[in-house]
């Protein structure tokens, strides 16, 4: 790993808000589970994102292993919380990006990239120097440090971020994250400063800007109204929102009675109505279904290998 900026970031890791100080260069793993090498679970053309991300030819999606959150209901726990990825150098990651562009991907979509932000930055610079032209999507849980995001300024075109919770008591209980609300709000403010409101091409593809995802959780564990009020009052009512109804009790959710079921129609309707209450009318609302289905833009089933 020759890049001195990447080396400094990993010697005493403070990339995410946990700032655990792990010496990842020496093989020590951070609280996220990541060491020094980038670990990729899968990379492929993906058609399960929001319409302007997937488009007609697919999003060139790179699914990273590990995560700075520990959500008990994680639908992607196989790669966010378990081992099993392929280790890549920064140069190899850049090559992977270029190969996805050759497959006519509309963009490069980094899923759960937070703990690899320095390597991602290096790979984007490398790939751009070799001719990469398509937009970069930073697809994150929202638990980010503004300082880390600032280091990505000019490299990321589209921030596709979760805002999981409106209150930290639930973030702590269900994601082992005591300061998620504050940190995710600071992060979204920085993202919006960098890229602004989402801009679409004439073909309806995302070119630059912010998209905020919000997953409806049973019993209003997500505190949706607090999330939407913040976006409307502190970011912009023009913000594109992706309201997701795909929750089902994955991973360890069955251990928590309040999360051990899908959402009800009433919960779905209530969350959707809140968007209109706060004037957030740009974006997408995932169709309600009594049983889990892939709605066409927020799929969760990932086939390993690339």
Lay out the secondary structure.
Blueprint: H1 4-11, E1 38-46, H2 51-54, E2 59-64, H3 77-80, E3 86-88, H4 90-102, E4 108-111, H5 117-129, E5 136-140, H6 146-150, E6 158-162, H7 168-175, H8 180-195, E7 199-200, E8 206-215, H9 224-235, E9 240-244, H10 265-277, E10 282-285
Parallel strand pairs: 2-4, 4-5, 5-6, 6-8, 8-9, 9-10
Antiparallel strand pairs: 1-2, 1-3, 7-8
Helix pairs in contact: 4-5
CATH architecture: Alpha-Beta Barrel
Secondary-structure element string: HEHEHEHEHEHEHHEEHEHE
Return the CATH class.
Answer: Alpha Beta
Describe the main β-sheet briefly: 10 strands, mixed
Give the CATH superfamily. Answer: Aldolase class I
Q: Overview of this structure, please?
A:
- The chain has 10 helices and 10 strands.
- With 306 residues, the protein is an alpha/beta fold.
- It has one domain (40-285): Aldolase class I (TIM Barrel, Alpha-Beta Barrel).
- Strands 1, 2, 3, 4, 5, 6, 7, 8, 9 and 10 form a 10-stranded mixed β-sheet that branches.
- α4 crosses α5 (117-129).
- The two termini are 23 Å apart.
Key terms for this structure?
single chain, 306 residues, alpha/beta, TIM Barrel, globular
How would you summarize what this structure contains?
The protein is α/β, with parallel strands linked by helices and about 300 residues long. Helix content is about 30%, strand content about 15%. The longest helix has 16 residues.
């Amino acid at each position: 790993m020759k890049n001195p900026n990447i080396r400094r970031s990993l010697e005493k890791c403070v990339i995410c808000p946990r700032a655990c100080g792990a010496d990842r260069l020496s093989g020590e793993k951070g609280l996220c589970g990541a060491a020094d090498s980038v670990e990729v679970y899968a990379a492929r053309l993906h058609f399960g994102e929001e319409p302007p991300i997937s488009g007609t030819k697919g999003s060139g999606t790179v699914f990273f292993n590990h995560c700075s959150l520990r959500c008990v209901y994680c639908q992607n726990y196989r790669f966010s919380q378990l081992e099993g990825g392929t280790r890549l150098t920064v140069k190899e990651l850049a090559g992977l990006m270029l190969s996805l562009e050759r497959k006519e991907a509309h963009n490069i979509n980094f899923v759960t990239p937070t703990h690899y932000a320095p390597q991602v930055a290096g790979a984007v610079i490398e790939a751009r120097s070799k001719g990469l032209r398509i937009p970069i999507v930073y697809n994150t849980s929202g638990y980010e440090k503004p300082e880390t995001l600032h280091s990505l300024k000019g490299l990321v075109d589209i921030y596709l971020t979760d805002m999981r919770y409106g209150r930290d008591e639930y973030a702590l209980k269900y994601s082992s994250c005591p300061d998620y609300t504050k940190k995710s709000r600071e992060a979204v403010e920085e993202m919006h400063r960098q890229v602004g409101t989402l801009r679409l091409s004439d073909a309806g593809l995302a070119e630059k800007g912010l998209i905020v995802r919000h997953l409806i959780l049973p019993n209003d564990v997500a505190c949706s109204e607090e999330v939407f009020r913040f976006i409307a009052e502190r970011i912009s009512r023009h913000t594109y929102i992706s309201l997701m109804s795909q929750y089902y009790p994955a991973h360890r959710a069955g251990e928590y009675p309040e999360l051990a079921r899908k959402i009800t129609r009433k919960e779905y309707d209530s969350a959707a109505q809140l968007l209109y209450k706060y004037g957030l009318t740009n974006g997408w609302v995932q169709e309600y279904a009594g049983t889990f289905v892939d709605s066409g833009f927020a799929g969760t089933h990932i086939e390993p290998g690339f």
